[in-house]
Amino acid sequence: MTDKTKRTPSTPHRASQGNRDFRKRTRRDTPPADALASQVRSAPITGSASAPAAILLREGREKSLLRRHPWVFSGAVERIDGAPVSGQTLPVLDSGGKFIAWAAYNASSQITARIWSWNQDEAIDADFFRRRISAAVAGRAGLERASSGMRLVHAESDGLPGLIVDQYGDVLVMQIGSVGAEHWRETFADILQSLCSPACIYERSDSDSRTLEGLELRCGVLRGTLPETVEVIEHGLHFGVDVAEGQKTGFYLDQRDNRALTETMSSGRDVLNCFCYTGGFSLYALRGGAKSVLSMDASSDALRIARDNLTRNGLNESRAEWQEADVFQALRKLRDQGRSFDMIILDPPKFAPTAAFAEKAARGYKDINLLGFKLLRPGGLLFTYSCSGGINEELFQKIIAGAALDAGVDAQIIHHLHASPDHPVLLSFPEGAYLKGLALRVAG
Ligand code: SAH
C-alpha cells in the first residue's frame, strides 16, 4: 500500500520571488471574525503596528524553512509587524524582507507559525483547503482498502498542520490541534461534508496539543447525527469504536498493518498483549491461532469494548484472558510468578510528547522492555513500539538494545515497523514519524 497523495498546490519558484520586498504586495486571508476573537492577543514581539502584518525572521533563521520544515519557532522570530491575531494567515519573511511562506500565526505558542503554503501566489482560502483536503482523500483512495477505517488527513504531512481526520465507515472524526486550523474549523467541516457525504462529522478536539496552543478542549457533533454504534472492519475483523469517549479519535488506525503482521506469527504461541486498548493485537493473534492471549490495560472501558469485540467476531473466548492492570506492576508480578510467553506485544501510550521528556520516557521504555525480554521464552518474539514524538527511531533502538543487554538476552531485529500508509510522513517533517516499532526474536 502506498500513499499517492497528489498535491494540487504548485511548487514555489524561489528564483522568481527574487528579492522583492514582499510587504509591497501583501495579501492575506480575511480577518477572523469568529470563535478566535476570544483568543485575540497582541504579538509577543511587536514591530511596527502600522506596517502590513507579517512575521519577520532573525537573520539566518530561515534555514529550516528553506528545507521545507513547516514550523516557525518563537526563537527564530525577529518581530511581528502589524497587529495580527492568532489564527490569521501571515507572510513569513526572511530578515531581508523576502517572502518564504504563508503561515498560520499563533501569538501564544512556542510554535509561532505553521506553514500553509510556500507559494506566494496562492491565496489561503476555502478553495485552498478544498484542494488540500481533496488531495489527501484522493491519496487514500489509492491505498489497499483493507479497512473501513482510514486516516484521511494527517496534519503537517498532508500539508494541513493541526488537522486530523479519521474515517470509521460513514462517520468522520475531526481533531483540531492548532490555532491556525481552529480558524478554519467550519470550512473544514463543510469541505469534508461535501467531499465524503458522511452520516456524521464528530469533533474530538481534546488532544494535549490544544493546551500548548492555548485552545480550549471541545468535543461534539459538528454535522449530521452520531449513530448509536460505530464500527470499523479491519482485515475482516470487526471492532467497536467509541468515537465520543474512546482514546484519540476512538481507535488506533496507525497499528493496522502491524496488527496484521502479528496474526501471521502468532500460531501456537502463548501471547502477552500489554496496553491492549480495545483488543486490537489480541484479536489478530487469536485469529492467527495463538494458543492463549493474556491482554492487559489500565482502562476498564477499553477492556469492556475489547471483550465485546471478541464476541462480535465469534472468536473462542477460552483462549483469551483480560486483565485490568498497570502494566509496569503487572509485568513484575508475572516475572515473580515465573510466567513466560512465546510472544509479547508492548504498545504503551506516548511517554514523551516532545524531546524534552525523552530521558524520563527512555527509563519507562527500558523498564517495560527489560521485563518483556525476561518474560520471553527462548526463541520468543517481542513486538515493541513507541508512539512518542520525542523519541526517534535511533534512540528507541538504543533503548531496546540496552534493555536486552540488562536482561541478559541476545536478540535480532526481524522487522522495523511504522504506522500504516494512511499516516504518511512528509519527508521534510521527520516529527511526523511518531510511531516506530521493532519486531525482535530472542536467541533460542
Ligand atoms: N495496542 C492498542 C493501542 C494501545 S494505546 C491497539 O492496537 O489498539 C495505549 C493503551 O495503554 C491505552 O489503552 C491505555 O489505556 C493504556 N495504558 C496507559 N497507561 C497504562 C498503564 N500504566 N498500564 C496499563 N495500560 C495503560
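^ S-adenosyl-L-homocysteine complex. Residues 126-224 form a domain with the Transcription Regulator spoIIAA fold (CATH 3.30.750.80). The pocket of S-adenosyl-L-homocysteine is lined by residues 247, 252, 255, 275-278, 280-281, 296-299, 302, 326-328, 347-349 (CB under 6 Å).
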